[in-house]
């Protein structure tokens, strides 16, 4: 795999280290890097033996076959379709871009016509396999996620002394208000009941140091209760380490003949 990377932040730099330096993707290498700030892309590219590009078209035509997006929901929406239209597979970190049903339809149409795929890694949560099985015969009745993070990981009052509920409502609204914090609700929506029927609660809690997600679901299969206590990434406490690992795992699993789950 000849990989291109959009976004040189936390997840991006983790992947460059894991793939280009530590050799954790034996069949792949990140050869091209694109970021909003060209000088950042140039510095990071040099450090990890890749090439940086200042415009998206040269990046997409740099000999890559797969693009990893690790930037923002806005960037994913801006470049996602273009990546696919150029005949390149896409792996998305900013899954909030897929909250819009019309956008998802366009993505599916381009994927079919260009024979490419878009992969949505499980990110900082799990249980997607259970939700997918549970809804196979329309037997999934409810899905909710309660996200509890320290104020440093949220756009919250940093001097909070007690926990505070910042949001309660559907995933479709949550991702509009917290596009950098609740991508997990959209991946759960896509596996389960959709962004309007997936309930979200976001709590800023000064008494926790981890990013905690509690996923609850019920249906004809039974009930699900899954709590994940994520360690934050050292350079960006908003992002859980598991989210970066899930992108690496998606790359490692890409094209494998034995698919688990
Ligand atoms: N699916 C999930 O479970 C999770 C998803 N995320 C999402 O993954 C994405 C990446 O996360 P991090 O690496 O922690 O973020 P980060 O903030 O550390 O890095 C983002 C990078 O993207 C660059 N960027 C911003 N706009 C851009 C544009 N228009 N074009 C190109 N580059 C652009 C920034 O300059 C920055 O270097 C974020 O959208 C984040 O919300 C984060 C955690 C969990
Ligand atoms: O990393 C996390 O715990 C979740 C997160 O930021 C997101 O879903 O956007």
UniProtKB/TrEMBL annotation:
The active site is at 213. NAD(+) binds at residues 124, 183. Pfam families: Asp_DH_C (PF01958), NAD_binding_3 (PF03447). Residues 161-248 form the Aspartate dehydrogenase domain. Pathway: Cofactor biosynthesis; NAD(+) biosynthesis; iminoaspartate from L-aspartate (dehydrogenase route): step 1/1. Its EC number is 1.4.1.21. It catalyses: L-aspartate + NAD(+) + H2O = oxaloacetate + NH4(+) + NADH + H(+); L-aspartate + NADP(+) + H2O = oxaloacetate + NH4(+) + NADPH + H(+). It comes from the Bacteria. It is an enzyme of class 1 (oxidoreductase). Residues 7-120 form the Aspartate/homoserine dehydrogenase NAD-binding domain. The iminoaspartate product is unstable in aqueous solution and can decompose to oxaloacetate and ammonia. PANTHER family: ASPARTATE DEHYDROGENASE DOMAIN-CONTAINING PROTEIN, L-ASPARTATE DEHYDROGENASE-RELATED. Specifically catalyzes the NAD or NADP-dependent dehydrogenation of L-aspartate to iminoaspartate. This is L-aspartate dehydrogenase. It comes from Siminovitchia fordii. The lineage of its organism: Bacteria, Bacillati, Bacillota, Bacilli, Bacillales.
């Amino acid at each position: 795999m000849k990989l291109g990377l959009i976004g040189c932040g936390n997840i991006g730099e983790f992947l460059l280290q894991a793939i280009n330096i530590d050799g954790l993707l034996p069949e792949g290498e990140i050869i091209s890097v694109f970021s909003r700030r060209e000088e950042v892309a140039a510095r990071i590219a040099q450090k990890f033996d890749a090439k940086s590009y200042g415009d998206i078209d040269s990046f997409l035509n740099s000999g890559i076959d797969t693009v990893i997006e690790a930037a923002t929901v806005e960037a994913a929406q801006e470049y996602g379709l273009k990546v696919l239209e150029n005949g390149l597979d896409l792996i998305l970190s900013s899954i909030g871009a897929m909250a819009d049903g019309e956008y998802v339809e366009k993505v599916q149409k381009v994927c079919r016509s260009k024979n490419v795929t878009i992969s949505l890694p499980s990110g900082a949560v799990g249980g997607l396999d259970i939700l997918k099985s549970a809804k196979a015969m329309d037997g999934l009745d409810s899905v909710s996620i309660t996200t509890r993070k320290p104020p440093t990981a949220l756009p919250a009052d940093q001097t909070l002394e007690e926990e505070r509920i910042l949001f309660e409502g559907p995933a479709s609204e949550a991702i509009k208000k917290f596009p950098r914090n609740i991508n997990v609700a959209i991946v759960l929506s896509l596996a389960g009941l959709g962004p309007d029927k997936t309930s979200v609660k976001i709590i800023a809690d000064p008494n926790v140091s981890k990013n905690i997600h509690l996923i609850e679901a019920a249906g004809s299969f039974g009930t699900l209760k899954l709590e994940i206590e994520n360690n934050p990434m050292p350079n960006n406490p908003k992002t859980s380490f598991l989210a970066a690992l899930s992108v690496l795992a998606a790359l490692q699993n890409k094209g494998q003949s034995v698919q688990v789950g």
